[in-house]
């Protein structure tokens, strides 16, 4: 189960103890020559010493079903309702799409591994899983930033809103985010291929998470960690800082609104948006910052990260669409249109009889 690939270049290997949990794939060979080691498969450990952990995975399965149904409904509504064919809802549609894709690359595989005891994942599939989870999480982060930008322009510069926020401009920003994310995470995941895994193949996480995987390497992985820290700053900390600044500008603008009712309505909307942003960013931020200085219990990290990755996609349809008047009005119009079409069809059938 371990592949040895000889290379001409020298690779320094770090000494270290094997993990407590062993498997048939575990090996700690001695290297006289430069050898590049890749496991044929990784073992995804999941929770350790937690009774009835399968109930938690069943909960994730339920949340996934709600996420897919809710976001599919929102995407269908935006597609069918002409009044929602605006720049803002291009971003909302993209957020729903990213939520479905991000949940789909994570939860079904997680269910297969832990509910059906299929915890081995091939080396290539592991890297693919790592890439797509990171890619779609990053797209969610970028889209939340775009929606915050949309709100800033709408509230702080209402007269210039339609000139600045157009469907073409939002589409260009989203395309740029896809290209940027693809290039960055191709580089990040591609660098995993330069590592040798000669200590253990047991990943202490619930998927092929970047940090736990590269920590298993026994040659120099400093470049991987430096790049991970850089991406963490650029793709998590920077968007969060910009979103925070955006809502501070919004708060300052709202204080100038004369009518109390309008101010309260806008504040309620912004508060719900900020709550969702906090649920998405703060757990990721806290875990990564804490891991720099001290070790984190794997079980706590799994619960923290998994909830961060599944709860916001489930709540996004409610916060960004179902609580807005124009979406609710569009749903009512679509329902009436469908009802009229159904009645007309029944009438035609009765006449033909």
UniProtKB/TrEMBL annotation:
Q: Name one GO cellular component term.
A: plasma membrane
Query: Which keywords belong to this entry?
Result: Cell membrane, Disulfide bond, G-protein coupled receptor, Glycoprotein, Membrane, Olfaction, Receptor, Sensory transduction, Transducer, Transmembrane, Transmembrane helix
According to the record, the segments passing through the membrane are 55-80, 87-107, 127-149, 170-192, 226-254, 266-285
Question: Entry's InterPro entries?
Answer: GPCR1_Superfamily_Member, GPCR_Rhodpsn, GPCR_Rhodpsn_7TM, Olfact_rcpt
Where does this polypeptide localize?
A: Cell membrane
Q: How does it sit in the membrane?
A: Multi-pass membrane protein
Show the Pfam families listed in the entry: 7tm_4
Kindly list the GO molecular function terms attached to this UniProt entry.
G protein-coupled receptor activity; odorant binding; olfactory receptor activity
Check the UniProt entry and state the signal peptide residues, or none: none
What's the protein name? Olfactory receptor 1
Q: Which organism is it from?
A: Triplophysa tibetana
